[in-house]
Design a protein that fits this description.
Blueprint (H helix, E strand, L loop, with lengths): L2 E10 L2 E11 L4 E5 L6 H8 L7 E5 L6 E4 L11 H6 L3 H19 L5 H16 L5 H11 L4 H4 L8 H15 L3 E5 L7 H13 L3 E5 L3 H7 L2 E6 L2 E5 L3 H36 L6 H13 L28 E10 L2 E10 L5 E5 L6 H9 L6 E6 L5 E4 L13 H6 L10 H7 L16 H12 L6 E5 L7 H13 L3 E5 L3 H7 L2 E6 L2 E6 L2 H8 L23 H4 L8 H42 L2 H5 L1 H39 L1
Parallel strand pairs: 3-7, 3-8, 5-6, 6-7, 12-16, 12-17, 14-15, 15-16
Antiparallel strand pairs: 1-2, 1-4, 8-9, 10-11, 10-13, 17-18
Helix pairs in contact: 3-4, 5-7, 10-11, 20-22
Length: 656
């Protein structure tokens, strides 16, 4: 076990963020840390990395364990190039190399080599080789290229990059350091879609443990095998992936509601007894006993669904023309760098258009031209009938006036007629009561994102232009925004790295690459199908389908005269038929065994979800060992199934 938190608690003033947190992270563990903004996820992550101390409880790591955290606040050396900064993650290899060179010089200078010096040299050289010392520069280049830094970018100083690109450098350093546990706070926030794909492939090959905070539901589905929920001061660990967690969470809530209903009934009966016999001396002892039992009772508290959920309904806009925005012959350059040279593009009323492509390709430039907030050197931008554009910038949070209050910031875009409904509008974005008087400077990233959305959506717009609208929102807020945009009756154009968000919304995708636009109908998955190289799919059959005999002739084949077979050919055909029958029987038996193992594994997962069972560490260890054994049997079963499928395929090829 590389990292263990036991009974960890943290408070700020009178507010308890969380208490009694127990979490163990070992090799191959993939823990998704989820919960609403402000619940304390980042605070818990800093405690796990030893950056912050807990108020109570312990953080335990074995000696020599390396825990790496992706920090949101960074302080890089501004004079370093990207390459130099990334190499600082391998500084220990640089020190090893210096010592090796010094020992080499000493051995060369001495007439007779000291055996102790030679032994030290051999030890260091072996360590240098095992840690990949000779390939470290190639590793750095590979990681930086995967994260979107080309050769020229790697040679540029850090101060020439935006905060998002600096976060990529920090991620590169973290991956290069090769820690035992990765602690990742929104790692995909500043990555484009190709970089996310590269990062996911890298993470799949990472042998250590991972704890990740992310609002990217696709990322959570693919890369978690446990979910830790931090919500309203409670920490709950679910021994399953993200989709199963959603089901289990709802089931637990229903169970809690049933227990609360039963408890409320007993409380009511007890209170009626107390009230009825309070004044009777003969019942005094019984009354007093029931009063004490009520005082000691730990009452079940169930959070109301949506009690603190963003409520977002986009106002019905005016009906725009058939083509709300049209671009013709657009030429745009930044200095000597030409981004677009005579491009055409248009929006159709009611569509939801997503822009895709790597960072630096010009997506944000095109989006800002469509929104009308960026000038261009040549061409024409035409608006349709009654078009009103609302624009949400990727860096909208940075242009909020931090000296304003929340209410004051909303007032900057309000008219006199809007004033009576400003507080109600803010309430829908979870700013209620005294929250509206908070200074913008003290808001979290998620709160600032909600305020920026509230400003944009104060009045109806029939065209919404959104640049990374889900950044800084928690998973639940992303879902609320997604639902609201699905119900929106206007036209939408957006950029997002959240693949679930794009798939749910997009009706058309425009790929932006090297100043060229390509159009694809459908969502992001459809775009990937059309643009990515096709890879052969693994041999598979529909569930519960029988293994078909490859020798069964088709109707067309039956019409052809059957060739006369030699004795040897007939013998081979009989052997192939026996082999096929044997494999078919084994496949059917194997499928039944796999189903049995998977059912047993799932049952143990549900058992671990029982809070009573999970409180017994010895029982948890036993159950986890059983699950691991069953999962190994399932994996072995699938490998055997694939081997048998390959044999069937070989028999088919032999008969073809």
């Amino acid at each position: 076990m590389w990292l263990e938190l036991t009974g960890v608690s943290r408070s700020f003033g009178e507010r308890t963020l969380f208490e009694g947190v127990d979490l163990r992270v070992g090799a191959s563990d993939r823990v998704g840390l989820v919960g609403p903004n402000g619940a304390g996820k980042s605070t818990l992550m800093r405690i796990a990395s030893a950056d912050d101390p807990p108020d109570a409880g312990q953080r335990i790591t074995p000696r020599g364990a390396r825990i790496g955290i992706l920090r949101q606040e960074i302080d890089p050396h501004p004079t370093h190039t990207v390459q130099q900064e990334a190499l600082t993650a391998l500084a220990d290899l640089g020190e090893l190399e210096l010592e090796l060179r010094a020992l080499e010089a000493r051995m060369t200078a001495d007439g007779e080599v000291d055996p102790r010096v030679a032994e030290r040299y051999d030890q260091l050289q072996d360590r240098f080789l095992r840690q990949g010392g000779f390939s470290r520069e190639a590793r750095v280049e590979s990681v930086l290229e995967g994260l979107g830094f080309d050769g020229d970018a790697r040679a540029r100083p850090l101060h020439t990059f935006s905060g998002g690109w600096l976060m990529r450098v920090e991620l590169a350093k973290l991956l290069l350091a090769d820690p035992d546990v990765l602690l990742l706070d929104e790692p995909t926030n500043h990555l484009d879609l190709p970089s996310i794909q590269w990062f996911e492939e890298t993470l799949e090959a990472f042998p250590g443990g991972v704890v990740v905070i992310s609002h990217d539901r696709t990322f959570l589905r693919r890369h978690t095998n446990r979910i830790a929920e931090l919500s309203h001061g409670r920490f709950t660990l679910y021994p399953c992936g993200y989709d199963e967690y959603l089901k289990m969470r709802e089931q637990r809530r229903e169970e809690l509601l049933a227990r609360k209903k039963s408890q409320d009934k007993k409380i009511a009966e007890t209170e009626r007894f107390i009230e009825r016999f309070r004044s009777k001396a003969s019942k005094a002892r019984q009354v007093q006993s029931r009063v004490k039992s009520l005082d000691k009772l730990e009452r079940i508290d169930v959070e109301e669904p949506g009690a603190r959920r963003m409520r977002l309904r986009i106002p019905e806009p005016k009906r725009a023309g058939a083509i709300p925005i049209e671009l013709e012959g657009i030429y745009k350059a930044y200095g000597d760098t030409v981004v677009y040279e005579g491009i055409d593009a248009s929006l159709r009323r009611g569509e939801r258009l997503a822009l895709a492509g790597p960072n630096g390709a010009g997506k944000s430039t095109l989006l800002r031209i469509l929104a009308g907030v960026l000038r261009f050197e040549a061409g024409e931008r035409r608006l349709g009938h009654q078009v009103e554009v609302g624009f949400y910038a990727q860096h909208q949070l940075e242009v909020l006036d931090e000296s304003n209050t929340v209410l004051g910031e909303l007032e900057t875009v309000a008219t006199t007629d809007d004033v009576p409904r400003l507080r109600g509008h803010l309430g829908a974005f979870l700013f209620s009561g005294d929250d509206v008087n908070k200074k913008v400077s003290v808001l979290s990233g998620g709160e600032k994102a909600r305020l920026a959305l509230a400003k944009m959506l104060l009045r109806p717009k029939n065209v919404l232009v959104l640049d990374e609208p889900t950044n800084h929102l928690d998973v639940e807020a992303c879902q609320v925004l997604e639902d609201a945009l699905l119900a929106y009756r206007g036209t939408l154009v957006f950029i997002s790295h959240d693949r679930a968000f794009i798939n749910a919304l997009a009706t058309r995708v425009i790929e932006v690459k090297a100043g060229v636009l390509r159009e694809f109908l459908g969502n992001y998955d459809g775009y990937l199908d059309a643009t990515q190289p096709k890879t052969p799919k693994r041999l598979a059959r529909p569930e519960n389908a029988a293994v078909e005999s490859p020798s069964a002739p088709t109707p067309a084949a039956q019409k052809q005269p059957k060739p006369q077979l030699t004795r040897e050919e007939r013998r081979l055909e009989r052997e192939r038929k026996k082999a096929r029958d044997r494999i078919t029987r084994r496949v059917e038996k194997l499928e039944a065994e796999i189903l049995e193992f998977e059912t047993a594994t799932e049952a143990l997962g549900w058992k671990l979800g029982d809070p009573v069972v999970y409180a017994d560490k010895a029982q948890v260890v036993t159950i986890e060992a059983e699950r691991t054994a069953l999962q190994t049997q399932v994996a072995d079963g699938y490998r055997e199934w694939e081997r048998l499928a390959a044999e069937l395929e070989a028999l088919d090829a032999a008969e073809a």
